[in-house]
């Protein structure tokens, strides 16, 4: 079984546990229900294009940074020019939690992407209830039909959708209502990073859709290359997080690349 299969298997158990603890109607009582979302589509055009991620650990890298707090990091990300923030909420594999978003929501005024493995409608209500603005749908673990249904539900709840693809086959998951397409430079099944592969895939996207290059952007040269190839957004985690002061690293990166 590859790592993605393992994560999904565990996620099913986690979701059924959450469902038995907290009902959808209880989630709907959250102060964040009905709140207007910050749009990542809009914000990508206005600021640096960088979606800076808060990530403590990952299955491919182990512990990246377990000393900083979400609040200090995401506030600095906003201050130094991120277009959006991504927060990993998966606990077992990434060391995150819903509280990581809840605890920062009222302190930042840029879009927050809830980064998790979405497989059940329940998780969309949960995302809204913790104050997320955008959710990630990963084509590798969903059918095109699920992508379409989950997109509809997200929009009903006022959440934007970032659809992540990695292969040509997954181009079939692109649905006309998707807000943004992310191309993961990293294969989630074996963790290999290949920027050239992503650029080839980007050239096959519908022309009018916003595209985000995800993962494995580790230096200014990688970033410039992807920007020149026309990506609108850049999802970066480890490069900032492995630094003791991730916000400062973002500030330097933005100033060095001149964006
Ligand atoms: O830390 P990196 O290599 O900059 O990557 C960030 C982000 O793209 C990565 O965390 C990611 C992209 N897609 C995912 C899906 C699930 C979990 C994590 C991810």
TrEMBL record:
Reaction(s) catalysed (UniProt annotation): 1-(2-carboxyphenylamino)-1-deoxy-D-ribulose 5-phosphate + H(+) = (1S,2R)-1-C-(indol-3-yl)glycerol 3-phosphate + CO2 + H2O
Which pathway does this polypeptide act in?
Amino-acid biosynthesis; L-tryptophan biosynthesis; L-tryptophan from chorismate: step 4/5
Q: Which UniProt keywords apply?
A: Amino-acid biosynthesis, Aromatic amino acid biosynthesis, Decarboxylase, Lyase, Tryptophan biosynthesis
Which of the seven top EC classes does this enzyme belong to? Answer: lyase
Q: Which GO terms describe its molecular function?
A: indole-3-glycerol-phosphate synthase activity
Pfam families, alphabetized? IGPS
**Record Gene3D superfamilies:** Aldolase class I
**Any idea where the Indole-3-glycerol phosphate synthase domain is?**
4-252
Enzyme Commission number, as recorded: 4.1.1.48
Show the InterPro entries listed in the entry.
Aldolase_TIM, Indole-3-glycerol_P_synth, Indole-3-glycerol_P_synth_dom, RibuloseP-bd_barrel
Family per UniProt? Belongs to the TrpC family.
Protein name per Swiss-Prot or TrEMBL? Indole-3-glycerol phosphate synthase
What is the species of this protein? Chryseobacterium urinae
What lineage, starting at the top, does this entry show? Bacteria, Pseudomonadati, Bacteroidota, Flavobacteriia, Flavobacteriales
